[in-house]
Amino acid sequence: MVQIAVAQLAPGQDKERNLADAARLVAGAAGRGARLVVLPEYAMFTAPKMDERFAETAEPLDGPFVSGLLRLAREHGAYVVAGVNETVDVPGRASNTLVAAAPSGEIAATYRKLHLFDAFGFTESDFVHPGDTAAAPETFEVDGVVFGLQTCYDVRFPEITRRLVDAGADVLALPAAWVPGPLKEDHWRTLVRARAIENTIYVAAAGQCAPAGAGNSMIVDPMGVTVAALGEGTGIASGEVSPARIAEVRGKNPALALRRFGVSPL
Prior knowledge:
The chain is α/β, with parallel strands linked by helices.
């Protein structure tokens, strides 16, 4: 078994303060024994409105913010997953990138968001360059448990999670900045549990809280049971992920073995 945590916060436009807030939550989670801490999407920088600031404040993966995440991972002996806006060679755009920082001080995996949030009145694609659908899913291992990465709006596209499961993932780390709105919290909880149930995996979903996000961070097990959860405020929720539990659930519900269709990019 591996102890993990989801850390919920409300990042803003001060990147140094965001890193300091993340540091406090990572320290608290590691103090509870967490070997992996999942922080939200856009943990590096968030503004009330998505505009050119997201590209202007972007950093390379060897920049100050990711270097700070790597330092936190080393200091606490825990993997840290967080969303950053990464520089890309596209004028006026950034990449919405997840970084998994390892205790070794190296980046264990990266993921660049594939499905941009062009819905519910938002157009993320105006300022964000999407990831490459042809890129193979990246996974990383923590104490024998395999983790995969995806971001926020991706959760509405079940084939993304299935590709990660096909690549060997036992746990989906899902940072998000889930925008509040009518029925949005219900959508979030339903979709997170659905991805866990249909793939018989754990999902560790870490969201931003108010004012930008709807909160409701949670860890869900392969049967759809909520192991730990948060409400609307800043905080940490922790729980165990167990390969034995995955095997037990798959023994009862061998849906992956019984499926008759695969997944491939369009």
